[in-house]
Amino acid sequence: xxxxxxxxxxxxxxxxxLEGLPGxxxxxxxxxxxxxxxxxxxxxxxxxxxTLPEPGPDLLSEADSPLSTVVLPxxxxxxxxxxxxDSPLSTVALPxxxxxxxxTEEVTP
Length: 109
Prior knowledge:
Helix content is 10%, strand content 39%. By secondary structure, the protein is mainly β. Strand 6 (92-93) and strand 7 (101-102) form a beta hairpin. The longest helix has 11 residues, at 2-12. The termini are far apart. 11% of the residues are buried.
């Protein structure tokens, strides 16, 4: 199944969020305000280790220090706050109800 998605993604000209993820791990990036958030979901029944492209704190843990590697437990989730967004263009705003809205201009709450 991964090979099919890789081919479709390649033909569409879309890049992977993170290359070389362990099997069963999904990575999704969302943007809100001036921040990016990397959601890591481990769908597997085994722990998975993910090396981050840039350090950032896991918002679901109590540690505030930036991590460069995340160990996801089986069926575990991490939300990593990454760098600030450089431009207000092409961001995804997260309104109060949590529904993502694609915008090409600056979004004000």
